[in-house]
Design a protein that fits this description.
Blueprint: H1 2-14, E1 21-26, H2 33-46, E2 50-55, H3 65-84, E3 88-90, H4 95-108, E4 120-123, E5 126-129, H5 137-146, H6 163-176, H7 181-203
Parallel strand pairs: 1-2, 3-5
Antiparallel strand pairs: 4-5
Helix pairs in contact: 4-6, 4-7
Length: 205
């Protein structure tokens, strides 16, 4: 919702008229998800914005739900972009996501573990942009509150059965111990650049 509100505000302030399309992924894991997606569609309709709900149909995995869900979400978004001729995809990842992903990758080991989400990349010919990586999740929520807008919290984000909520809890403890999220995100950025340089050098050998 924060990304949608920001794009709408930017278009209004800059008098932009380039078309854009809002895509909402419904993982179909909770009974409320369809109505939540419909609420986003209703908000878009108020502003004459094109909107489509992409639903994950079929049986759901019994293990590795978060990872399978992430892969399915990316697949649905990229397929819809290609089908509609959309060349740029904006995603609302924040600094929180950067730090959470970094710690999750570090746990798995390897050089990839010491980098994280990048602000711009190209996947299957689609330019993927993440404009909120320098902002905390709380910054977006505060901005929505100031604008009088609401949002939906997925309860699975607080379910300690999954890895990411546990990592999120660990980050909060690290912040209390004097290691703020900004420092972790800065480390991820530096290591991401280092990894990119190393990949280029190795490729030239």
């Amino acid at each position: 919702m924060a990304l949608l509100a920001s794009v709408l505000q930017m278009r209004q302030q800059e008098a932009l008229d380039a078309p854009f399309f809002v895509l909402t992924v419904d993982h179909d894991l909770r009974s409320e998800s369809a109505s939540e997606a419909a609420s986003v569609a209703g908000f878009c309709a108020q502003f004459g914005v094109n909107h489509s709900v992409l639903t994950w149909h079929g049986a759901k995995p019994s293990t590795a739900m978060a990872e399978r869900g992430r892969m399915m979400r990316r697949g649905l978004l990229l397929a819809e972009c290609k089908a509609r001729g959309i060349r740029q995809l904006l995603l609302a990842h924040t600094m929180d996501d950067v730090c959470e992903t970094l710690l999750m990758r570090v746990r798995r080991g390897g050089l990839r573990g010491h980098a994280s989400i990048v602000p711009e990349t190209r996947i299957s010919g689609i330019r993927v942009l993440r404009p909120f990586l320098a902002l905390h999740r709380s910054d977006l929520r505060n901005a929505l509150r100031r604008s009088g807008l609401s949002w939906f919290d997925d309860p699975t984000n607080a379910n300690m059965q999954y890895e990411r909520p546990r990592v999120r809890q660990a980050l909060q403890a690290m912040a209390r111990d004097g290691l703020p999220m900004d420092s972790i995100a800065a480390y991820a950025t530096v290591m991401g650049r280092w990894r990119a340089v190393m990949a280029q050098r190795i490729a030239s050998i």
